C-alpha cells in the first residue's frame, strides 16, 4: 500500500476581524487563489464568536458546496439548529439563499469549507444535508475513535451524498496512539490538528494545534496516512477529496466556469430565483 508523506505544513493564522462586528473573529485555514494545490477545496474559514446573538445576514451561494463543521457551540436559523459536532453539507448548485435569521451561542466556533463542483453538476438543483454527530458511523480501535461524516473508513460508511468524492473524518487519538486511515491515492488531503500534537505521514512530520498538513495525490489505488499522537493525545480533522482539474472563476459567494455564468448567477439572485434553505427539507438518510 502506498504510504503518504506530508508535503507542506501551514498554520491557521491568528484570528482577525470578521464580517460581523467586534464579537466575530475569523481566519482562513485555506486561502483562495491556489486551487492547483488545494483542488477540490477552494477555501476554508475558521469563524469564532465571543458573544451570542445574530450572526450575519441571509446570503446566496451558487456553483459550489459548503461544508459547515460545528466545532463548538450552536447555530440556529430558519433551516434548523446545528449542535456541537454536527455538519451541514449544502450543495448550492444552481443557487440557494441561506443563513436567514441565524443565531449563535457564546464561544461558537465553526469551520466552513467551500468545494468546487464538477462542470456537469455545477448547476444541479440545490440540496441541504444535516449530518448529526450522533448518527454518523464510528470506527474504533485501540486508542482511536474516528467519526466518519463523509466517505468510508473500513466498515464505517457515511450516508452522505457527495457530488465531489470527499472523505471527512473526526479523529480522536489517546496519548501515544497511532492510526493509519486508508484513503484513495488520487485524493488531495489535508489534516487539521484541533487539539494536541501528532506526527503525520511516513516521515513523521510534526503537526501541533492549529497546524494544517497537506499530502498531495500520489497515484491510483489505496494509500494510508499514519497519524501518531503525542503525550497529551490529539484531535485531528481529516479532509480528502478528488481533484476536479477544471478552471473556475469566483466572485463574492459564487464559483462559476466563466464570467458569463457568474453574471447569470447574479441576475438570477436579483430576480428572486434562488430557493431559500429554510424552506427546504434536509435530505433524509437511510
TrEMBL record:
Give the cofactors, semicolon-separated.
Answer: Fe cation
Which organism is the protein's source? Answer: Rhizobium azibense
- The answer to keyword ATP-binding applying to this record is no
| Name of the protein this chain belongs to | Nuclease PIN
Q: Which UniProt keywords apply?
A: Iron, Metal-binding
Its family remark reads: Belongs to the pirin family.
Domain Pirin C-terminal, which positions?
A: 169-274
The cofactor remark states: Binds 1 Fe cation per subunit.
The UniProt entry, under CDD domains, shows:
cupin_pirin_C
Q: Name one Pfam family in it.
A: Pirin_C
Which molecular function GO terms apply here?
metal ion binding
Q: What residues bind Fe cation, as annotated?
A: 59, 61, 98, 100
Output the InterPro entries linked to this UniProt entry. Answer: Pirin, Pirin_C_dom, Pirin_N_dom, RmlC-like_jellyroll, RmlC_Cupin_sf
Amino acid at each position: 500500500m502506498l504510504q503518504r508523506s506530508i508535503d507542506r505544513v501551514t498554520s491557521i493564522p491568528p484570528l482577525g476581524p470578521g464580517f460581523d462586528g467586534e464579537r466575530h473573529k475569523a481566519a482562513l485555514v485555506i486561502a483562495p487563489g491556489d486551487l492547483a494545490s488545494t483542488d477540490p477545496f477552494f477555501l476554508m474559514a475558521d469563524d469564532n464568536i465571543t458573544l451570542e446573538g445574530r450572526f450575519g445576514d441571509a446570503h446566496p451561494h451558487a456553483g459550489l458546496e459548503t461544508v459547515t463543521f460545528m466545532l463548538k457551540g450552536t447555530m440556529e436559523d430558519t433551516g434548523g439548529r446545528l449542535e456541537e459536532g454536527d455538519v451541514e453539507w449544502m450543495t448550492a448548485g444552481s443557487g440557494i439563499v441561506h443563513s436567514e435569521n441565524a443565531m449563535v451561542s457564546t464561544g461558537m466556533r465553526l469551520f466552513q469549507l467551500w468545494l468546487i463542483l464538477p462542470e456537469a453538476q455545477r448547476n444541479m438543483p440545490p440540496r441541504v444535508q444535516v449530518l448529526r454527530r450522533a448518527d454518523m458511523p464510528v470506527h474504533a480501535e485501540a486508542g482511536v475513535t474516528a467519526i466518519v461524516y463523509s466517505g468510508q473508513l473500513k466498515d464505517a460508511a457515511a450516508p452522505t451524498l457527495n457530488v465531489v468524492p470527499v472523505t471527512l473524518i473526526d479523529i480522536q487519538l489517546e496519548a501515544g496512539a497511532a492510526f493509519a486511515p486508508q484513503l484513495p491515492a488520487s485524493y488531495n488531503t489535508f489534516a487539521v490538528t484541533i487539539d494536541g500534537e501528532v506526527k503525520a505521514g511516513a516521515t513523521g512530520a510534526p503537526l501541533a494545534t492549529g497546524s494544517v498538513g497537506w499530502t498531495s495525490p500520489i497515484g491510483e489505488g489505496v494509500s494510508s496516512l499514519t497519524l501518531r499522537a503525542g503525550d497529551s493525545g490529539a484531535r485531528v480533522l481529516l479532509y480528502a477529496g478528488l481533484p476536479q482539474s477544471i478552471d473556475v472563476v469566483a466572485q463574492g459567494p459564487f464559483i462559476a466556469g466563466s464570467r458569463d455564468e457568474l453574471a447569470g448567477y447574479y441576475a438570477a439572485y436579483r430576480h428572486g430565483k434562488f430557493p431559500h434553505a429554510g424552506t427546504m427539507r434536509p435530505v433524509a438518510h437511510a
